[in-house]
Amino acid sequence: MGSTLSRYQKLIEAEISKQKFGKAPASLYEPIRYLMGLGGKRLRPMLTLLSYSLFKNDAKPIVKYAAAIEAFHNFTLMHDDIMDKAPLRRGKPTVHRKWNVSTAILSGDVMLVKVYDMLLSIEASKLKRVYGAFNKCAAEVCEGQQWDMEFEDKSSVSEEEYIEMIELKTAVLLGFSLEFGAILAGASDKDCKALREFGTNIGIGFQLKDDLLDAYGDPEKFGKQVGGDIVANKKTFLLIKALELAKGDAKEELTKLLSSKEFNNEEKVSAVTRIYDTLGVHELTDKKIDSYFKKGFAKLNALSCSPKKSAELRGFAESLVARQS
Asked: Facing residues of 88 across strands?
């Protein structure tokens, strides 16, 4: 399995390096090349290639289309970073910091246009279906981002609202990445749907795991400040459950920690995680993560291809499930 993943990784990186996106003005296109060159897990294009490989022997012919999905993902990051006023992306200055906000908006806009260009050469019999599924997914990602921003100012968010938000903002693109590979391979409607649902469910699980790692991860493995969500009062699954379950002194202390304007970051993180521990929030989150992963892998078991064919995709997904960063 490792050799296939390594080969696909190299194919994806080579394709991304080859894409220039445009020439002039350089200030419009250089930010795109900069952001795409910052690396990342390349999770979405990898899922597209692995999905295609379930039905075809070699995914090399569709690498260009898989790279388009990575470009779309990075377009969303470019605009998200503006909205979040984020200074860094993958340890480097964000586009709006390195250039300016106006350039980042325009570069993101043209990046999305280039994604459609990259997909245009898909064979005509599949193009309409691809664009239909892609457009639905793209709109949902925007809906999820809007919900996420609105939640910042909302006094309370329910578990159901939060799950729907992360499904739209994060998980549906993983689902589409898998469905896309299956459509390009000419898979049945049933298999395309099963792969989309597999990706969407594990995508929700991944985001919930991110929530958990942000509070409980090993700083050396996690790769960013542990407790950042707690410091920012971000309405993660953990905080939502804690607010739902806290009573008496625990509720009073949690409310005070959330409303305080002046605090020591480490002390706040320590105090909030102690409340999480008292309420059993870690265990509840683990159970919720496990439920979505199980739901996802059940969809993978429903595929018409042999378990041997799906072993690479399963192994790749399982390695992500077990990640600590």
From this structure: 93
Domain boundaries, the chain: 1-121
pLDDT, tens digit, 9 for 90 and up, residues 158-208: 999 999 999 999 999 999 999 999 999 999 999 999 999 999 999 999 999
From 1, 10, 17, 115, select the one nearest 53 (Cα to Cα): 1
CB atoms within 10 A of CB 100: 12
CA 273, CA 276: separation in Å to the nearest integer? Answer: 5
Q: What is the DSSP string of 266-297?
A: HHHHHHHHHHHHHHTHHHHHHHHHHHHHHHHH
3-state secondary structure 93-114: ECHHHHCCHHHHHHHHHHHHHH
pLDDT tens digit sequence for 15-25: 999 999 999 99
Strands, E assignment, 16-112: 88-89, 92-93
Q: What are phi and psi of 41, to 5 degrees?
A: -75, -20
The torsion region of residue 137 among left (phi > 0), alpha (psi -120 to 50) and beta comes to alpha
Residues 6+ away with beta carbon under 8 Å from 310:
54, 300, 303
- Phi-psi group of 22: left, alpha or beta (phi > 0 → left; psi -120 to 50 → alpha; rest → beta): left
pTM of this prediction?
0.94
Q: Write down the CATH superfamily of domain 1-121.
A: Farnesyl Diphosphate Synthase (1.10.600.10)
307 preceded by cis ω (within 30°)?
no
